[in-house]
Amino acid sequence: MKRAIALLLAAISGSATAQQAAEVPGDAQTWFETRVEAAAPLAPSLADLREEALFRARWSTTIQPCSAPPENLRLFGLRPAMADRLVTNGMLADAFLGAWTFYAETDCAETPLLRYMYVLEKDGSHVLMVVNRGETIATPSMMRETSAVAGADAFAAAKARQPDCDIKSVGMRAARIDATDPGLGPEIAGTRFTGGWSEIWAFRACQQDVEVHVRFDTDGRGGTTARIQNTRVVG
Fold first, then answer.
1. Signal peptide: which range, if any (predicted)?
2. What is the side-by-side order of every strand in the sheet holding 196-205?
3. What is the Cα Rg of the chain in Å?
4. Any idea where the domains of the chain sit in the sequence?
């Protein structure tokens, strides 16, 4: 077990991750703006997604801390997400027509806010998934990649206080936006092209609450570098 933990930590060690935007023809910002405009008539209706969103929430491991599955959702904040790298690659491969994210307020005190991603495929079918708890500016794919590094930091901080802790105890909870730079640019297709921001991601590890402070800086092309600034056990 100790060797497995060491290998995992070595594989995802380091305080920063960088995700470049997918390579697109011409100017990246213009390309994404054009795709957002073209896909606008295909955007889903949140009212039509309510029952499916509720079904996804009830079966998602994201809501495991809830004492009971949610019974009600309020969907809001639909926004284009074509700049998520996995979505962009699907559009370049002519497999996806577009993608959007939105939030849902739940009646679960432990998980009051969920973020979803809706991906429209070329054949007209779609995929709807819960991607995280809490509010974030990071794209779903950037968050997924960075959460591995953040989780490793959270585990290390918790294990320092409880040495016999198992890495299986690590779980990500809610994210929240901590601060935004004055120069943070507008959201375009789900990403930013200028400025930066910071978020605090909550984890549960070794029966302890841990907060990981993550700093994000844009690269001017739709990509982002994420850096772990500090990690602390809070309870």
1. 1-18
2. 16-19, 224-233, 208-218, 196-205, 171-180, 126-134, 113-121, 96-106, 73-80
3. 18
4. 2-14+138-233, 28-134
Per-residue pLDDT at 130: 95
Q: What's the pTM value of the predicted model, to 2 decimals?
A: 0.88
Q: What pLDDT does residue 64 have?
A: 67
Find, among 47, 166, 144, the residue nearest to 86 by Cα: 144
| Dihedral sign, Cα of residue 180, residue 185, residue 191, residue 196 | negative
* 176/200 Cα distance (integer angstroms): 5
| Residue 23: both structure tokens together | 């390579």
**Mean pLDDT of successive 10-residue stretches along the chain, which has 235 residues:** 36 56 88 96 98 91 76 96 95 97 92 95 96 95 92 92 83 94 96 97 93 95 92 91
| Cβ burial 189-208 (10 Å sphere, 16+ → b, else e) | bbbbbeebbbbbbbbbbbeb
